[in-house]
Specification:
Length: 335
Amino acid sequence: MPNKPNLEKEGTAPSIGTDLGLAARYLRQGLPVGMPTETVYGMAANALDAEAVARVFKAKKRPDFDPLIVHVGQKSPLQDWVREIPSEAQALMSAFWPGPLTLLLPKTERIPGLVTSGLDRVGLRMPRHPLALALLDMLDFPLAAPSANLFGYISPTKALHVREAFGPELPYVLDGGDCEIGLESTIVGFENGKACVYRRGGIESCALARVLGYLPEERIRSEEHPAAPGMLSRHYAPRTPLSILKADQPWPEPDSNVAVILPLAEVHPAHVKVWVLSENKDPYEAARKWYACLREADQAGFSQIFVRMLPEHLPFADALNDKFMRAADSADHWA
């Protein structure tokens, strides 16, 4: 194996490009690489190399109690990574892979304990992005790839977001354009023979129900030793204080240093700085633009940001509202 590059001498920010060969070379050397997926950008590393995985935890400042998702390709030998695949998991794979669905399955010894935070199950996902799939097919190992952001901060949906977040610890970002979905994958595990949702995301529960024949229960919050990523009450959050703007709440006063993010277009006072995620009132467009818009608002110097919840009857409302609430300062709305 060639010597690892001295990243301190190569610059202070990762380069961006579409060179799959270069990305694969870094990964084979045990270094992390920014990787596009249809959900958000990931910080990928060899999932079988505990030292490489440790670099991801260190770069993200991620606590080791929060497990990682392992990404597999279309040719990946799943039996090498998991001991058992229940029939319902097989059905979900057939329906949603490649795609934004992560399945928690009992891991083999080949997956280091650091990847799963010592838990017996590993989250497996086959991403839908063509560059991610091409990269995975070039490698003889799966990729542990949490979102390519500092722990707890807004998830990246553009290669530039990743480049801005990291220095020499991340040598390269594979640029796959803007993420198609813009929200993390849905995470499903199995308890007592039944499917259970641990994180709302790119696959809605009603779609899961059409395959399973029942609506899976949800276990989407855990403050200690979470079973899956994204279960903490505050996550995917800006540094600027953010609150939910309720329907009966007055608009901010003129000259207040406050911004409002609206998922769908609605009438609003001219004096309020407003971002509208979808002028066409398309919840999927709103989801796709959420993180990029929140990042822009967070960097604009406001003293506070408000966000309006999406009406519950609309598609993607559960997943998107879940992200709104986790980005907010107070957990009162979880009560």
